[in-house]
């Protein structure tokens, strides 16, 4: 509970702040001050404040907090007035859209920045203005940026923080200069352009014509030119330096666009437009994901999987994730234009695609799985404008780190909360041995900062873990390293990199368990057909096996022998799976896979199959849970460092469903329910943001006696965006429950 809150300036923002806090009951008294008597009268009538004071001094005496919500250019005068008063311990704060000039004005007025002055800026507003538009909900789920200085009192900061949170705002802290630069770019520049464009068109003699035919694009782009001219005039004067800086950068880009139009340079235009289009979508995802990490539960996507079901039909699951990543990487490094079909339009592969766009590669699509990559050659990548954000995708980060170690420019790789916990020393250490300069976060976790311009030398590396990501990372670095780079794996892992390099005409030698490349060759553009992902098909292979009276055909699935462990394991468990119409497409073997219901039994999973089924264990555990007898997995500690700790997370969920499981350091022991009741129970399980866990528990519902609620399912979109639709099509009763 705080004592008196004084709000100076009863416009939309000040009025909404006062009203919201008055309604919250947090302040003993809310007092308004405004030069306009009409606004004061209305503020009391509308319940925005308890009362108004004509004199600033009278209002402020004994106030606990004073909110300064006057127009930004009026702030200087107001601060001079305040400096004359004895404010004691009163906390001051403001809502100005530019912070540098407020801090300057406060220093001038008070002699130094008062420690109990917390500068702030709510990013909220509406086309309406004045106290009559005051809305207690205006700041709910809006960002409020506070820009404390070094000397700012931490209690004062906490108090202001608390007031905004009470109004439902998301409060962030930033440095003053940073705030002004960010706002200049994201808010002030767009307003300047909108005002400028409308004025420029309106001045022309044919203006009536122009406005008569103005279409939606014009309306959308210029909506903000309807904003309050006086307020914006104030903002541009207040944030002069930062606006000039961002405007000059933009002018340079605009000139480049002009030159491209002048020169008929369609390639350049296509590059700018495709990058801009996806950047818009990409940034909104980053922002959504940041919110997801901050407030896990408010963004929880829940799947409701209803019990029972019988499967039938034929489907084609989305494109292979591993091959999709590599198609973008190698297509970008090739000379010429590469066409990709069947590309996985999931968030992981799209993160790779965006990274290459950020490095200047023009990539069209994806559109219905078609992507056109205008390759830049092995030495044609450009420095990205900022960190490359790779979302949830470990493959993107590990493969890119090898490739980027050989570039002339610096780069930083970041990811979401899950990726930020995954081990990167497995790639950083051998890359350093080749001469790369890489820094990781604490304990070898992301972010990775890679210094460009290093001379890499080829080496021989004996991989301690069987990892296709590590192998691929080093082979990609090898394209830039002097001499030969060779990698020996302790057990076979997926060989898509080796196959695809050859598909692009780059020689790769494979001798037993060792793959090697030499630098000095080039990649030539090609056509890639991405087969359906066996890791996505795996959910249906298990579903078709455990559901009664089922038969399902999975079309055009990649059956590269380094990926088919799931089929071998299911067959060992008694699964009825057959491969039809086997063929080779673009260097990768493909087949239609038929699966029928079967009585599965528990097995000791042969350890040599672990790397060949590494991504399929979550759903294989579900198969084991439905089987008769005990299944034992060993030698699979890698599962603990995937998108989640897949051993623990699956064990927790299966226990909830009443299955007897025992996690071990390198595997799990599962006693199938077929020997008892024949079905699992229902309940609430958590996928911990791991796509494959979410889908595995959806499949479990086929043999559950009650509904299963699966939390944290948003990341299914990383590898299988249309999972729910395909599952429903073949008879799995899983739907999205709620998105709060
Ligand atoms: C992948 C390799 C595997 C796999 C991942 C994709 C790849 O990881 O789990 O989903 O595309 O190279 P590891 O190499 O770490 O086993």
Structure commentary:
Helices cover 39% and strands 21% of the residues. With 740 residues, it is an alpha/beta fold. The strands form eight sheets. Strands 3-2-1-4-5-6 form a six-stranded parallel beta sheet. A four-stranded mixed beta sheet has the order 30-31-10-32. Strands 11-24-26-25 form a four-stranded mixed beta sheet. Helix 16 (425-433) packs parallel to helix 17 (468-478). The protein starts with a strand and ends with a strand. Shikimate-3-phosphate binds at residues 322, 395, 467-469, 472, 494, 614-615, 638.
Summarize the main sheet: 6 strands, parallel
Strand portion: 15-25%
CATH class value of the largest domain: Alpha Beta
- Structural class comes to alpha/beta
- List the ions, cofactors and other small molecules found in this model: shikimate-3-phosphate
Poorly predicted parts: 289-298
Total helical segments = 24
| Full CATH superfamily name of the largest domain | Enolpyruvate transferase domain
């Amino acid at each position: 509970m705080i004592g008196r809150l004084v709000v100076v300036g009863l416009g939309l923002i000040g009025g909404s702040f006062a009203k919201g806090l008055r309604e919250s009951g947090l302040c003993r008294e809310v007092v308004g001050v405004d030069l306009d008597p009409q606004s004061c009268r209305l503020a009391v009538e509308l319940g925005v404040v308890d009362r108004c004071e004509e004199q600033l001094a009278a209002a402020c005496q004994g106030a606990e907090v004073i909110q300064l919500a006057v127009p930004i250019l009026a702030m200087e005068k107001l601060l001079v007035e305040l400096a004359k008063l004895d404010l004691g311990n009163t906390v001051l704060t403001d809502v100005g859209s530019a912070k540098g000039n407020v801090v300057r004005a406060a220093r001038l007025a008070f002699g130094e920045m008062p420690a109990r002055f917390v500068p702030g800026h709510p990013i909220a507003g509406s086309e309406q203005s004045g106290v009559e538009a005051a809305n207690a909900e205006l700041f709910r789920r809006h960002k409020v940026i506070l820009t404390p200085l070094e000397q700012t009192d931490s209690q004062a900061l906490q108090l202001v923080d608390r007031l905004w949170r009470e109004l439902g705002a998301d409060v962030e802290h930033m440095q003053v200069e940073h705030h002004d630069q960010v706002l200049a770019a994201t808010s002030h520049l767009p307003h300047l352009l909108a005002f400028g464009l409308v004025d420029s068109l309106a001045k022309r003699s044919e203006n009536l014509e122009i406005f008569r035919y103005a279409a939606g694009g014009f309306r959308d782009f210029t909506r903000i030119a309807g904003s309050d001219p006086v307020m914006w005039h104030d903002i541009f004067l207040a944030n002069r330096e930062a606006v000039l800086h961002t405007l000059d950068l933009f002018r340079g880009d605009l000139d480049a666009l002009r030159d491209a139009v002048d020169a008929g340079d369609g390639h350049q235009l296509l590059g700018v437009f495709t990058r801009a289009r996806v950047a818009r979508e990409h940034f909104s995802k980053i922002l959504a994901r940041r919110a997801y990490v901050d407030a896990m539960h408010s963004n929880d996507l829940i799947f409701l999987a209803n019990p029972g079901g019988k499967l039938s039909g034929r489907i084609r699951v989305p494109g292979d994730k591993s091959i999709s990543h590599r198609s973008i990487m190698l297509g970008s490094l090739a000379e010429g234009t590469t066409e990709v079909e069947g590309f996985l339009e999931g968030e992981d592969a799209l993160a790779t695609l965006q990274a290459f766009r950020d490095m200047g590669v023009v990539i069209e699509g994806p559109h219905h799985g078609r992507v056109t990559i205008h390759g830049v050659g092995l030495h044609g990548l450009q420095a990205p404008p900022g960190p490359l954000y790779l979302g949830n995708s470990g493959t993107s980060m590990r493969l890119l780190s090898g490739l980027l170690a050989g570039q002339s420019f610096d780069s930083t790789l970041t990811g979401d909360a899950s990726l930020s916990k995954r081990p990167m020393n497995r790639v950083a250490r051998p890359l350093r041995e080749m001469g790369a300069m890489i820094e990781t976060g604490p304990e070898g976790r992301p972010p990775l900062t890679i210094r460009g311009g290093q001379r890499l030398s080829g080496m021989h590396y004996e991989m301690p873990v069987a990892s296709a990501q590590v192998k691929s990372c080093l082979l990609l670095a090898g394209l830039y390293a002097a001499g030969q780079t060779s990698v020996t794996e302790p057990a076979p892992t997926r060989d898509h990199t080796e196959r695809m390099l050859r598909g692009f005409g780059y020689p790769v030698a494979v001798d037993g368990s060792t793959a090697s490349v030499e630098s000095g060759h080039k990649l030539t553009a090609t056509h890639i057909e991405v087969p359906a992902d066996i890791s996505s098909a795996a959910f249906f292979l298990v579903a078709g096996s455990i559901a009664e009276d089922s038969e399902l055909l999975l079309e055009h699935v990649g059956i590269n022998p380094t990926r088919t462990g799931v089929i071998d394991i299911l067959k060992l468990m008694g699964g009825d799976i057959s491969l039809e119409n086997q063929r080779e497409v673009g260097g990768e073997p493909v087949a239609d896979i038929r699966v029928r219901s079967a009585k599965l039994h528990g097995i000791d999973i042969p350890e040599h199959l672990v790397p060949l089924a590494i991504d399929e264990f979550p759903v294989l555990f579900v198969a084991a849970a439905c089987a008769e007898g005990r299944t034992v997995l060993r030698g699979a500690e890698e599962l603990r460092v995937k998108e989640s700790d897949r051993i623990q997370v699956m064990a927790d969920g299966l226990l909830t469903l009443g299955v007897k499981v025992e996690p071990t350091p390198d595997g799990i022991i599962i006693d199938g329910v077929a020997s008892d009741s024949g079905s699992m129970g229902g309940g609430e399980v958590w996928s911990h943001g791991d796509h494959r866990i979410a889908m595995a528990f959806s499949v479990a519902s086929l043999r559950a006696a009650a509904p299963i609620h699966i939390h944290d399912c948003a990341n299914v979109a990383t590898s299988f965006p249309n999972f729910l639709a395909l599952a429903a099509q073949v008879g799995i009763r899983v739907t999205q429950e709620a998105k709060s």
